[in-house]
Write a structure and sequence with these properties.
By secondary structure, the protein is of the alpha/beta class. Helices cover about 35% and strands about 20% of the residues. The protein contains 10 helices and 16 strands. It has helices at about 15-25, 55-65, 105-115, 150-155, 210-225, 270-285, 285-295, 300-315, 320-330, 330-345, and strands at about 5-10, 30-35, 50-55, 70-75, 80, 85, 95-100, 120-125, 140, 160-170, 175-180, 190-195, 195-205, 230-235, 250, 250-255. The strands form 3 sheets. A 7-stranded mixed beta sheet has the order 6-5-11-12-13-10-14. Helix 1 links the parallel strand 1 (about 5-10) and strand 2. It binds flavin-adenine dinucleotide (FAD). The site of flavin-adenine dinucleotide has 36 residues, from helix 1, strand 2, strand 3 and helix 6.
Length: about 350
């Protein structure tokens, strides 16, 4: 294949690696810079395990790489409204677990191995800084995920989040749970695969230690699991404005979460990162097709964000009321209703959020 010139990418996470792989296959020389000293995403967040909605077959087809070895169907995911439990209809939700980081079983390892095989050049310990911005070559791709300093230097609107995390050997795999409580705006959840767990309690407000203790008490009571080591972390999400999603910005190409390709409801970011990595590469060799694809994948973003802000955040603080309603209707009947609802929304390939289902 004829050599096409050089492309620089900042961010060796999922979207940056997918973009690098696709550009290499199209004959470009690719240099990927990352502020960390090796692959596997930010050390603050990884290794970790994520739970996400993804149509593995169609996503593999779209990015041209078989993802099935690293995505594992989720086998259980109870939703707890305080003490009341709902079992969602997993059979129609396409939920999977996936590992992030640099262990051999991770998604990052799969992508990094392929990028290296294709001759992508990596420059680790090489952060993007504000003073670099005017000197970046045309078609530079920014794939820096959830890093607040990059949103600030690029003048991108973002929301700050805070969270307690715990991680380690699990003794089980492909199980998750979700816990809702009024002291946080988002939720507590566990994800597990490859015998590794990642537990995360997060909110758009600071979370005090009492809330963490309540969550720990809950997981011990309901799941018989106790995690002792917890770290407090923070980051950015591109959910501050309905205009967040953008492929082109100040002469740069964006991809992954920083491009806004995130589900505003659950904050699922995996599918958006994989898909827009490919779209960012396309923006180098077919700009108008890439713009079209980016709009198509993010077409529900504004509506989903509006739903979250105007409807869900009004209901969300009243966990007792939600609990009361679920008990009144009956958890099994709610499950059947949810299944019926989701079964009738088969959008072909939907972002943000659910891979197969036009939920919003
Ligand atoms: C704690 C946590 C839990 C999550 N849980 C889930 C979940 O369960 N399900 C789900 O679907 N999504 C989840 N997400 C979201 C999902 O992980 C992200 O949306 C997704 O990883 C983003 O992919 P990306 O390619 O955009 O960025 P990443 O994969 O995060 O990669 C960004 C890369 O940029 C690098 N970088 C950052 N700043 C610079 C800089 N200045 N210069 C150079 N390099 C830089 C980082 O080191 C990193 O390697 C979670 C996110 C976090 C933080």
């Amino acid at each position: 294949m004829a050599r096409q010139g050089k492309v620089v990418i900042y961010g060796a996470g999922m979207s940056g690696l997918v973009a690098a792989i696709d550009l290499s296959r199209h004959g470009y020389r690719v240099a990927v810079h990352d502020r960390e000293e090796g692959f596997g995403g930010g050390r603050k967040y990884n290794p970790s395990t994520h739970t996400t909605s993804i149509d593995v077959e169609r996503t593999s087809e779209f990015i041209g790489l078989d993802l099935s070895p690293v995505f594992h169907p989720l086998v259980s995911c109870p939703f707890y409204f305080h003490e009341t439990v709902l079992h969602p209809p997993l059979e129609v939700l396409d939920l999977h677990t996936v590992e992030r980081g640099n262990r051999p079983t991770s998604l990052d390892s799969l992508l990094f191995t392929e990028a290296t095989r294709l001759g992508v050049e990596f420059r680790f310990g090489s952060p993007l800084r504000r003073e670099d911005l005017p000197k970046l070559p045309d078609n530079t791709i920014i794939a820096c995920g959830l890093t607040p300093s990059v949103y600030e230097m690029l003048d991108l609107p973002y929301l700050r989040w805070y969270g307690w995390t715990s991680r380690g050997e699990a003794g089980f795999s492909n199980r998750s749970w979700i816990w809702l409580d009024e002291s946080i705006t988002e939720y507590g959840y566990l994800s597990s695969c490859n015998n590794f767990y990642f537990d995360f309690l997060f909110s758009t407000r600071h979370i005090d230690e009492n809330t963490l203790s309540r969550y720990r008490g809950f997981i011990l009571r309901h799941q018989g699991v106790e995690h002792h080591d917890w770290d407090y972390i923070s980051g950015a999400v591109p959910l501050a404005s309905p205009q967040n999603p953008r492929l082109f910005h100040h002469g740069l190409i964006l991809c992954g979460t920083i491009s806004g390709a995130m589900d505003p409801f659950f904050w699922f970011g995996i599918l958006g990162a994989l898909v827009t990595g490919k779209v960012a590469a396309m923006a180098v060799y077919d700009r108008s097709k890439a713009a079209e694809e980016f709009s198509r994948f993010n077409r529900n973003f504004a509506r989903a964000l509006l739903f979250k802000n105007k409807v869900w955040y009004r209901i969300r603080p009243h966990v007792n009321w939600l609990e009361w309603n679920i008990r009144l209707i009956g958890p099994e009947r709610v499950r059947k209703m949810a299944k019926l609802y989701y079964s009738h929304f088969h959008a072909p390939f939907n972002l943000p959020g659910f891979a197969r289902l036009g939920v919003y």
